[in-house]
What we know:
Elements: H1 19-32, H2 45-52, H3 56-68, E1 72-75, E2 79-82, H4 111-116, H5 142-154, H6 158-162, H7 170-184, E3 193-196, H8 199-210, E4 216-221, H9 225-233, E5 237-244, E6 247-248, H10 250-256, E7 262-265, H11 279-290, E8 295-299, H12 315-318, E9 324-329, E10 341-344, H13 350-361, H14 366-377, H15 380-407, E11 411-413, E12 421-426, H16 432-441, E13 447-448, E14 461-465, H17 474-493
Parallel strand pairs: 4-5, 4-7, 7-8, 8-9
Antiparallel strand pairs: 1-2, 3-10, 5-6, 9-10, 11-12, 12-14, 13-14
Amino acid sequence: MKHAYLANLSIDKSDPGPLHRQLFLKLRDNILQNVIKAGTRLPSTRLLAEDLGVSRNTVLSAFDQLMAEGYLEARVGAGTYVSTQIPDELLGTNSSSEKPNPKARKIKLSRQAEALRPTGPAKPYHQGPFSPGRPELDQFPFEIWARLLAKHWRKPEPDYLSGNPVGGATALREALAEHLAQTRAVNCEPDQVIVLSGSQQAIHLVIKAFAETGDPILMEDPGFPGIRNSIIAAGANPIAVPVDDQGFNLEAAKSLAPKARLACLSPSHQYPLGPTMSLQRRLEILHWAGENDRFVLEDDYDSEYRYSGRPLSSLQGLDTEDRVLYVGSMSKVMFSGLRVGYLVVPKDLVDVFLALRRDIDGHSPAVAEAALAEFISEGHLATHIRKMRILYEKRQKVLISELRAKCGDFLSVDEQECGMHLIAFLRPEIEDKKVEALARDQGLMLRALSAFYEGPEKKNALIIGFAGTHEKQMPRLVGRLAQILETCAAHMQT
C-alpha cells in the first residue's frame, strides 16, 4: 500500500481566499499531475491539519469537496485514498498538450557533454552469456561475505556511522596495500591507497588532476571507452595510439602527441586485444615518463587471472621515479555491485588526490569497507581468486574448442594467457557489429571489437567473455552463434 507524505504541500495564509479552497486546489492538482498516484492513502485529517498549521475543519472541508468530485474515496476502517476511477485523460502524465516534447527542445550543451551524448538507449552489455568482464557469481563465497557484513553491522564502530576517512577505511587501505604488494608487486604504503567507487572514478580523478582544457591525453587504440569518456569530460583531447603485439606503441605516441604529459595504459593485459607489454617496452615507457614531468595511468583491471606462469609485476612496481598511478577494482575478482575501486598514487600527490576525491562525494561507505578489509586479510579473496583462475582456464579451453569446432569456417581464435575474454577474428566479409546486433537479439552479449577503435584502422573481431558463462552451456550457445555467423555469411553472398 502506498502512502502520501505530502511534504511539498503548503498553505499560504496571507491569501485572502478560503483556506479549505486553497487546500482543495493543491490536492486536486497533485492528483491530476500524478504526483499523488491512484490508490495512494492520504494522511489522516488530524495529522494533515497539524502538519499544515490549519484547523481540522479546513482539511475536512477540502476532503469532502474532493470526495464529492470523485478525486478521493473513503474506505471504512482503512482511511482516505486517491480514487482509482479517475479517467486517464484527466491525468497530467497523459496530457501531451501541457508538457513540451523533450526531443523538440534545442539545448546548448557544453562541448564535453555534447561529445558524450548517447546515440541511443544504454545497452546492458554486462548481463547474459559471453559478456566480457563478467565474473562467475554462483561460486562466490557469499556465506563468508554475509558473515563479515553482519558482524560489522551488528556492532559497527561509531566512526563508521558518522563518516569515513576521505581515502577510505584505514583497515581496507592497509589490507589492499599488503594484497597488492604480494600479488602485483605494487610498491606503496597504505596512505598512498585511495578507495573509490570503482575504477572509473579513479580514472576520472587521474585525468582531472593532469588535464587542462584541450590538452592531449594518450590512450590505447583500441582501448577502454571509459578512459576516452573521462578525457572528454575533462575537456581534454583523446589521442588514440595504436596497439601492437607488445601493447601501447610508444614511438607512435611520441609522433602523434610529443607534448602529451599523461598516458593511459593497461600493460599487464591490454584491453581489449589482450597482449602483455614486454619488459623492454615497460622500461622505455618509464624512461619516457621520467622526462619532462610526464605520468602514466596503469589500469590493471583483470591481471589476477593469468593462466601461463605467475602473474607479471605491475608497471608501478618497476617505477623508481614515482610516475605511475595504479588503478584497480574489485569488480572482476568479486562483483561489480560492490562498487569498490582503488587508486595508488605517489606520496607527494596523496594530498592532491584526497582533495579531488573530497570534492566528489567526501568519503565512501565505511561498514562495507571494514568487511572487505577482513575478507582480504583473512585470505578469502586470495582463495577465491585461485579457485576462479582454475575455473576460468577450464572455461576458456572449452570455449575455444567449441568455437573452432562449430564456427571455424567463419572465425579464428587463439588462447589468451590472461583475462576473462577471447578475441575471435572474423572473415572480412562478416561485419562484427552486425554479428553483435544479431547476437544480442539471441541473448548473447558478446561485443564487436571495431567499436573500441578511435582511429580509422579497425580490426574485425568479436570480444567473447568466458568467465561468467558455465561451460555446460557453451555447446548450445556456440551453436547459436554459429547459426548467426552462417546467416551473416549467406547474406553477404547474396
